[in-house]
UniProtKB/TrEMBL annotation:
PANTHER family: ABC TRANSPORTER SUBSTRATE-BINDING PROTEIN, ALIPHATIC SULFONATES-BINDING PROTEIN-RELATED. It comes from Sinorhizobium chiapasense. It holds the Pfam family NMT1_2. Keywords: Plasmid, Signal. This is ABC transporter substrate-binding protein. It comes from the Bacteria. Residues 1-23 form the signal peptide. The lineage of its organism: Bacteria, Pseudomonadati, Pseudomonadota, Alphaproteobacteria, Hyphomicrobiales.
Length: 470
């Protein structure tokens, strides 16, 4: 038995598993969501880099076993659940909301599924968002009263929208009109101004603005409700082949480690496969990203599942409850961490974004404070340039263009929430002293300017102001 398989066997035994692989061919059928890019470490990257094959057991009771690895790609979680119920998939990746529905659907079918790991998420709620057509005068959620908002029904963004509406003190049935619309339909509707607003999950609240067809006016972090995407497995399959489940999770762990080390490289790979531009992929997966890749069951993610179940019941999408503690099965990811030589308890306590380990591209000094970091990704350069402040990055912007180069994207961190922003979609405050701070929302920029002094500027205006002062 190889050391790797031996360690996995020890970890499984410690977790209380025992099993026998009695089939010559074991199917490993995984439902992915390639365009839902924060699931990449549980699907796309494992598939494209053939990481699962590295960890599937071939020794001991698995000696002589062949594996039939099947990958099926979907645009949302609901059809993955349908395929699992039909016995066509063993694993599936999806968000907290459809994942909870997955658990309920299995029970209704006389079966069970287990939520085995988060993959990426935000304890603050970032990832879901609301956008409006690019020429809309609407700047905030509060201006949507009486308007029509589309959303993929029974998605994690649907739950966010309902909570946001409730936080405004509105009645979801009287004060707004909520209609169902898939993201691929919503994109065309936004472009043609056929809808007044659209709520969606990763990556569409960033992708639509990046493609110039919408503006983001609300981030899920404003609802302060945790959200995540993760992986589920059929309970009978997990009982029969626990080592295979751990192998899948070890592959996810390696995918996570790889993209943490080379975020630009793997963002380009995700773009090549999914069609979601690398600039948006890096927004999520790069240092200080919009979400945090996290494979541990933090209390906030457990609460997200519980909240999703209650919301499904309130929507009359479910007529029963689901015990969260039995639905979430932490044993497999703990075994995978142990077999990979990692400390699960330490990771469980770590809430930090992927840190930025970089020197300022202009000064050469180590960037110690990520609150005002700004970044440029220059065409033809494999790595993103990092700067200690937006004003410094903007001052370099002109020089890059003067050299005949193209800046692919400008990133900044929201001064208050810390979430990563696409600079072209942000609002900025430039003080009389020349400091620049970035904000997602215009009203937050205005409040900051009132409190600290300065002018509120859009991206083009703040660039021009930096050029004029140099």
């Amino acid at each position: 038995m190889t050391l790797r398989v031996h360690l996995a066997a020890i970890a499984l035994a410690a977790a209380g598993f025992s099993s026998t692989a009695d089939a010559e061919t074991i199917r490993v059928a995984i439902g992915t969501q390639d365009t839902t890019i924060n699931t990449a470490t549980g699907g796309l990257l494992i598939r494209e880099l053939k990481l699962l094959e590295k960890y599937l057991p071939h020794d001991g009771k698995y000696q002589g076993v062949d594996y039939d690895i099947q990958w099926k790609n979907f645009t949302s979680g609901a059809p993955i659940t349908n395929e699992q119920i039909a016995g066509k998939l063993d694993f599936g990746v999806m968000a907290d909301f459809p994942g909870s529905f997955n658990g309920l659907a299995h029970i209704n079918a006389g079966r069970r599924s287990h939520f085995i790991t988060p993959l990426s998420g935000s304890v603050g709620g970032s990832g879901n968002g609301i956008v409006v057509p690019v020429d809309s005068e609407i700047q905030s959620l509060g201006e949507l009263k009486g308007k029509t908002i589309s959303v993929p029904f029974a998605s994690t963004s649907h739950g966010m929208l309902l909570r946001a509406v409730k936080a405004e003190g509105w009645d979801a049935e009287r004060d707004v009109k909520i209609i169902t619309q898939a993201p691929e339909v919503a994109g065309a509707a936004l472009k043609a101004n056929r809808i007044e607003a659209h709520a969606d999950f990763v990556p569409f609240a960033e992708l639509f603005p990046w493609r110039g067809i919408a503006r983001k006016i609300y981030d899920g972090s404003q609802a302060k409700t945790p959200t995540f995407h993760g992986a589920l497995v059929d309970a009978d399959y997990a009982k029969k082949y626990p080592e295979v489940v751990v192998a899948y999770l070890r592959a996810a762990i390696e995918a996570d480690q790889l993209i943490a080390k080379e975020s630009e490289k793997y963002s380009e790979l995700i773009a090549e496969v999914s069609g979601v531009e690398a600039e948006v992929d890096y927004l999520f997966h790069g240092p200080l990203g919009l979400q945090t890749r996290d494979l541990t069951w933090k209390p906030e993610y457990r609460q997200a599942v519980a909240t999703a179940i209650e919301t499904l019941k309130s929507l009359k999408k479910a007529d029963r409850s689901l015990d969260v503690d039995s639905f979430i099965d932490e044993r497999f990811i703990r075994a995978a961490f142990k077999a990979s030589g990692l400390d699960y308890e330490a990771a469980l306590k770590n809430y930090a974004q992927l840190p930025l380990d970089a020197k300022d591209a202009a000064t050469g000094e180590t960037i110690a404070d990520g609150k005002r970091v700004a970044q440029l990704w220059v065409a033809g350069e494999p790595l993103v340039r990092s700067y200690a402040s937006p004003e410094l990055a903007l001052s370099v912007f002109k020089g890059v263009e003067a050299e005949g180069k193209t800046v692919r994207v400008f990133y900044a961190q929201d001064r208050e929430s810390g979430i990563k922003l696409l600079g072209a979609q942000a609002w900025f405050v430039r003080t009389d002293g020349g400091a620049v701070d970035a904000f997602l929302l215009k009203d937050r920029a205005e409040a900051w300017a009132k409190a600290h002094g300065g002018n509120v500027l859009d991206f083009d205006a703040v660039k021009a102001s930096i050029v004029a002062s140099n």
